[in-house]
Amino acid sequence: MTGSRVTNRRARRATGFTLIEVLLVLIILVIIGSLAVNVFTGTQDKASINAAKSNIPLVRTAIDMYRLDMNKYPTKLADLWEQPSDTSASDKWAGPYMEELKADPWGNEYQYTAEGKKNANKYDFWSNGPDGQSGSEDDIGNWE
After folding, report:
1. Which of 18, 54, 86, 126 has a CB 3.0–4.6 Å from the CB of 141, allowing a cystine?
2. So where are the chain's domains?
3. Is the Cβ–Cβ distance between 128 and 134 less than 8 Å?
4. What membrane topology is given (predicted)?
């Protein structure tokens, strides 16, 4: 019986994990997790950029319809969904031309100017892009 007791004690000790084995598994999991975060972060950025780009033709259509009715570009984006208080302009207005425009995918307001700087003799409509700063390289607008 003494021989079987010694064997049982050795078997019990061999069934657990050593600290090095546990740390090795944790390190591997951290490496895999960091790789996954990098992959999914790039996917989210691309999806946000594509969402901003998809709003440009929708707003462009509404602005063009407004221009056909009013013979001018709107002075502000809200003119596309709010009826003008001026009665002479109110008679021509056939809107709303679109629903109220929500924030861009980064939570910032879309930008609009009736006298376009990037589109001469037209208007500029854009999102400030991921950095939220107007005039930077990541702006997404109707000039692209």
Report:
1. 126
2. 48-141
3. yes
4. Single-pass membrane protein
Nearest to 135 by CA among 120, 114, 113: 113
User: Helices (DSSP H) in 1-144: which residue ranges?
Assistant: 2-14, 19-70, 87-92
Alpha carbons 130 and 45: distance in angstroms, whole number: 8
98 near 58, Cβ under 8 Å?
Answer: yes
Residue 80 near residue 62, CB atoms below 8 Å: yes
**Which candidate, 122, 31, 138, places its Cα nearest to that of 72?**
122
Residue 17 bridge partners (DSSP): none
Instruction: Report yes or no: 114 and 104 within 8 Å, Cβ to Cβ.
Output: no
Report DSSP letters for 56-85, one per residue: HHHHHHHHHHHHHHHSS--SSGGGGTS--S
pLDDT digits (tens, 9 = 90+) for 32-86: 888 888 777 777 888 888 989 988 899 999 999 999 998 889 989 999 999 888 7
Q: What is the CATH number of domain 48-141?
A: 3.30.700.10
